């Protein structure tokens, strides 16, 4: 896992398996995008964790 700034996001997406977003993305990507706010707040974290584990299988 690596935190990246929004300006370099597209460069990092090319080599990523999953995108965990803490902001609303202006575009869609060809990899699963998860709700990062759930990991920060704990609300909805179980659902997002399930999605993350499924995406990494």
Write the layout of secondary structure elements.
Blueprint: H1 9-13, E1 19-21, E2 33-35, H2 36-41, H3 45-56
Parallel strand pairs: 1-2
What features would you describe in this structure?
The protein contains 3 helices and 2 strands. The chain has a two-stranded parallel ribbon with strand order 1-2. The mean pLDDT is 92. The protein has one domain (6-56). The protein has 57 residues and is α+β, with helices and mostly antiparallel strands. 40% of the residues lie in helices and 11% in strands. It has helices spanning 9-13, 36-41, 45-56, and strands at 19-21, 33-35. It is globular, with a radius of gyration of 11 Å.
Summed over residues and divided by their number, the pLDDT gives a mean of 92
* Cα shape: globular
The structure class reads alpha+beta
Number of helices, where a helix is a run of at least 4 consecutive DSSP H or I residues: 3
Give the structure's gist in a few sentences.
The protein has one domain (6-56). It is 40% helix and 11% strand. The protein has helices at residues 9-13, 36-41, 45-56; strands spanning 19-21, 33-35.
Descriptive labels:
globular; alpha+beta; 57 residues; 40% helix; single chain
